Structure prediction request, 357 residues.
Amino acid sequence: MCKFFCRAVSAAALLVMCLSMLVMGQGSVEAAEKSPVHELNYFKSYETEIQGAKAFRIEIGMDKDNLDYQVIPKTFLHKQLVLDMKSTKPGKLKKNIKLNNSLVKRLTISELERRHTQVVIELGKNVTEDMYSVHVEKADHKAGKPYRLVVDIFAEPQGGTDENFKGVKGRTIVIDPGHGGSDSGAVGPTGLAEKTATLAVSKKVKTLLEASGARVVMTRDRDVDVYGRNATDRQELQARVNVGEFTPGANIFVSIHCNAFSNPEAKGMETYYFPGSARGEQLATSIYNELLKDGGLAGRGVRTANFYVIKHSSMPATLLELAFITNPREEALLGDDKYQTTLAKAIARGISRYFGE
Prediction:
């Protein structure tokens, strides 16, 4: 009797779970249907120099901002970079564009399914993560350019991977780019979002550390919510903590943010650790010293705070405030690729010193 009852309860639970998944799935479909649809309407490509480095730039414009996209490098077989864009349709752009450049051969645009577009960039050679960058730019009405996705392919690595960060080899490091997806974080006076700056710096840190033999796990590697859209603050922050907690052998947790204040004169950088965490203080101090030395901004000190991600991480953890994105000068620096590399190197060097002490 008990066995029959248990089976009946299990079957009922399975049925409820399946129905819930169907409802959730339907909800996701409905949410996708309601998302604003971007239509591609602009294309331009040209050779250029970025911070003195030769590059080939591709600009893909569209009629709306806030694009949800993902970059998928497929360098192992076909030397491809794939841009996956949800809630987007190809519009009237040519579907096959021949480019005849040593870095980029061809670009194809296809709609995989309704409102789901992929752009495949055929590369001239294999590239590493520090040989390309992808970002969005706001509409420039004076130049006749709409909101657009900008892809830069470099001839040489840009990550400065020549520097060896001692002590990180074999370590597992969790990097948490602050905010993302539906949460832009703070926004600078010209529109730079905190989520964009933190992701750019974090990806550079990852490249640098991995080149020295570290295993790096990111809480997010693109513009997404870690838990999901419409999550509570607690759910989103716990999801980030969980990435570290469920990563076997994770040694440290580094959360990267930008500061903000109502007074645009507020400036400088600071690092945080949870009160009472000696190893957290050591980690925060090591990175702070390197950021202060190389970043060139005012030092606001190594501080304690009860920020969720450093409070609930069981490993040594720190939260970095790289600069004030609400300060016009510091916003410009945060959006500058070369300065982002400077920050990334300082963070990697600080982590190296932490493990070496």
Notes: The longest helix spans residues 2-34.
